[in-house]
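Colleagues,

For the teaching module next term, I've prepared a clean inverse folding example: a structure given as tokens, and then the sequence designed for it. I'd like students to try predicting residues themselves before seeing the answer, so please don't circulate the second half yet.
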């Protein structure tokens, strides 16, 4: 028999409809009502699976009515129990025809059970099935063709034969059936959470790109900024389309989980157990896990989400190639590093889109301030918060939860504090990417943040960065791929406003001597600058070029100024006092004035 019970591609558009029932049970009452069907219905009920089981008996020859058709249409899954006398009932055959119609037009999942009957007898319509159809054909030749076709189509769907499962132990067979049904169910209401502003449209766009229901195997990458909603989007897609696959698995936090002892082996076990619906699988070595995944899944149509992958080697151990999975499989990967996707030759790479101003405001205002306070009074403050968050869903959610019970004065105070000290939860999420850089890449990033943001990525900028020893051609590519910086359409360096916007120290040892004057000019305008350590190279000392402090120097927050081997014409005119209460320091080593 064929192994697919998925719906047609057109059915996906209807998959978000509101279902009334989880399961519709189609059965011949005289054969199974008081035994197998009763036990199955009870097991479903115990797991909270809402099932339709018609306990009425219609006279022979009477067709199903509108209410029964409606119950079939409003069920996510139709379970057909083919018993010896199933085809004796015109009612059952009409149910079957309508079920197969709903499979094609509404995306209904069909699961056949062959109870004390060989599937080939249903498919070929032999013995009792053939006899029953021959009798019906005499009475209603017009319907006979649709009955025969429905029997063939349904028997070609992979199902269960209880007599061949668990040595015929019915209770164990029913448990396996119920577990499978439970795994493939969506919640009754599949609409995206109202609190997830902007997700529905983004989700539908990506689902269309995934080409669910078509052949082929697709690896799909979702890439972008930390806190930008990649995991949320992947979760929504997974919930929406998982019923279309033979097996599914969602692996969260791979970056974190893989760092634990035997982390990759445990992740490989989760993939196998999740897809095959097994309770336990033991992987001793990573190499063993690779072979097990490929061996057991390469004939299955699977959906696997690998969330927060930051290492190409980890991706190779969890989803090494398309050949590991069966026809129609979809592998979704979320990452902050585009290089992981391009190096793995992922088929489609989607750069996640941050929230627009309107979407951001809608998300932030989902939970208005408590009490009787009018939201209009907070309008400008809300705009300030939204501007600060820069379209990051994570930042908006964190700030919303913090501010929801505060008054206007407390909002103003909180905003002022955020501009000085960003929220720790937000910074923690963003800092993960920065911490993953090499030392040279970190310094390149900080230089771009300090001096090159808004400046053209032209020959001069690249020459300056190259002279500093940053190897900017490859370094900038890495920073872009990690979503830390961008180059705008007009060719300027840019980055998200929350990317380390509080620069507090400058060490001049990595700059060329002839850049020091420009550095000091920039430093004079950096309000939060606290530490300057200037050291000249031999070239400036040899030529005895004077260093002139800018007019606005020093910055008011400056804590320490250290000068090494510098020819300083004059520090500043008159006496300048820092507004900070803490003591500062001024050090010179071989500096001349």
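(Answer key — instructors only)
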């Amino acid at each position: 028999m064929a192994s697919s019970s998925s719906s047609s591609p057109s059915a996906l558009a209807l998959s978000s409809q509101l279902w009334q029932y989880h399961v519709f049970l189609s059965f011949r009452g005289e054969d199974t009502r008081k035994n197998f069907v009763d036990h199955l219905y009870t097991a479903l009920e115990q797991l909270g699976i809402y099932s339709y089981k018609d306990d009425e008996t219609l006279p022979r020859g009477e067709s199903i009515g509108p209410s029964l058709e409606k119950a079939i249409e409003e069920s996510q899954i139709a379970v057909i129990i083919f018993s010896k006398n199933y085809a004796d009932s015109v009612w059952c055959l009409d149910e079957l025809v309508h079920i197969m119609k709903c499979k094609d037009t509404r995306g209904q999942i069909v699961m056949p059970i062959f109870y004390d009957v060989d599937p080939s007898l249903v498919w070929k319509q032999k013995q009792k099935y053939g006899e029953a159809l021959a009798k019906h054909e005499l009475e209603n030749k017009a319907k006979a063709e649709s009955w025969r076709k429905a029997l063939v189509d349904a028997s070609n769907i992979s199902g269960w034969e209880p007599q061949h499962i668990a040595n015929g132990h019915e209770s164990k067979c029913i448990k396996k059936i119920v577990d499978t049904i439970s795994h493939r169910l969506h919640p009754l209401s599949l609409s995206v959470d109202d609190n997830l502003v902007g997700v529905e449209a983004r989700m539908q766009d990506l689902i269309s790109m995934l080409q669910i229901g078509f052949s082929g195997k697709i690896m799909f990458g979702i890439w972008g900024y930390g806190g930008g909603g990649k995991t949320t989007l992947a979760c929504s897609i997974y919930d929406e389309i998982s019923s279309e696959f033979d097996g599914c698995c969602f692996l969260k936090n791979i970056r974190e989980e893989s760092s634990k002892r035997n982390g990759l082996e445990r992740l490989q076990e989760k993939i196998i157990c999740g897809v095959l619906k097994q309770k336990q699988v033991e992987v001793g070595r990573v190499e063993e896990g690779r072979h097990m995944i490929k061996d057991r899944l390469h004939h299955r149509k699977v959906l696997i989400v690998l969330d927060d992958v930051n290492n190409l080697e980890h991706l190779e151990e969890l989803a090494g190639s398309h050949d590991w999975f069966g026809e129609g499989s979809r592998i979704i990967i979320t990452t902050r590093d585009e290089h992981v996707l391009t190096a793995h030759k992922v088929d489609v790479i989607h750069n996640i889109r941050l929230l627009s101003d309107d979407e951001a405001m809608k998300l932030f205002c989902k939970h208005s301030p408590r009490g009787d306070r009018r939201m209009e009074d907070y309008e400008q403050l809300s705009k300030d918060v939204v501007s600060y968050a820069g379209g990051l869903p994570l930042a908006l959610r964190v700030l919303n939860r913090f501010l929801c019970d505060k008054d206007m004065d407390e909002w103003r105070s909180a905003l002022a504090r955020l501009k000085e000290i960003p929220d720790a939860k937000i910074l923690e999420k963003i800092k993960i990417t920065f911490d993953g850089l090499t030392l040279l890449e970190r310094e390149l990033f900080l230089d771009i943040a300090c001096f090159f943001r808004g400046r053209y990525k032209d020959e001069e900028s690249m020459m300056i960065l190259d002279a500093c020893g940053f190897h900017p051609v490859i370094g900038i590519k890495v920073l872009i791929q990690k979503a830390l910086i961008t180059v705008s359409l007009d060719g300027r360096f840019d980055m998200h406003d929350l990317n380390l916007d509080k620069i507090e120290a400058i060490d001049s040892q990595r700059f060329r001597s002839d850049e020091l004057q420009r550095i000091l000019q920039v430093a004079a305008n950096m309000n939060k600058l606290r530490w300057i350590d200037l050291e000249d190279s031999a070239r400036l000392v040899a030529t005895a070029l004077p260093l002139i402090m800018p007019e606005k120097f020093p910055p008011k927050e400056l804590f320490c100024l250290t000068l090494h081997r510098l020819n300083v014409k004059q520090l500043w005119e008159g006496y300048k006092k820092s507004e900070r209460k803490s003591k500062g320091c001024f050090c010179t080593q071989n500096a001349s004035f």
